[in-house]
């Protein structure tokens, strides 16, 4: 919502007003919305939210790509260079040095890794698929198609975004078009981002919710607070199965994540860290080891060696991304004030 308000402010002032705004109120509003949606009991009940989020993702990606192509056409040339941002470029964090450029490059690897760390929810999604055909066959086709489509969008948006703005390309591509017409198109894209984030939060958190609640029910099977469910009639919905442990624990979790987001509002840096720490063990190491075990691949065979080289290479990438992302957070902390974030 803040992005929409800023876009409209840019439009009204013709780009003369920097339109600085605090993000805290919007983060709190987002947290309240997530508290409500987090009360959806099971992962299979958020399928509709996942579909809406996917549609919204295509919407804002298409808008960003279209505006990027239009901006390149307007410029009449490609900005930037094949080696990335130029040393000496002045940014909000200061003048870019060779060391900072290295950290930025490594941080980008973490962001890319995060974009492909969907293995966290892969099994949960497969459990919701009906058969026949076999779930794994449907999931294989869906995975190949989704990776192909998302990779195409990532490459196009990244390349045209950089070609449009060069060294001044913002972390959020849409903010680069802040006071350009049609500003209403930017509003649509920003609304799509909001809806997508609401859905993405639930898709990623629901498996964690289920794990904690299943473990708690096993730990305290006789506790009514943990296991008992009560019928709660809700107008226009029906009967909701209220569980007090689910209500309290999920609310606390969302509140904590909201506070952390307000305390550390370094989106690109945090995404890089999450991608770095989650990519190799969950997306590479465990799947590779399971494949080796399932196919009974012998040690030191050519296939075994190739898979180990792949795993080790991805480990090095994850370590490099983690270093770059942590360095990015350290740089941002130099100009950071807790709970006083403005854009």
Automatic annotation (TrEMBL):
Subcellular location: Membrane
GO BP: amino acid transport
Name the record gives this protein: Amino acid transporter transmembrane domain-containing protein
Pfam families per the UniProt record, alphabetical: Aa_trans
Residue ranges of domain Amino acid transporter transmembrane in the record: 1-330
Annotated GO CC locations: membrane
Superkingdom of origin organism: Eukaryota
Keywords: Amino-acid transport, Membrane, Transmembrane, Transmembrane helix, Transport
Transmembrane feature ranges: 21-40, 46-70, 82-99, 105-123, 144-163, 183-204, 247-267, 273-292, 304-331
Main location: membrane
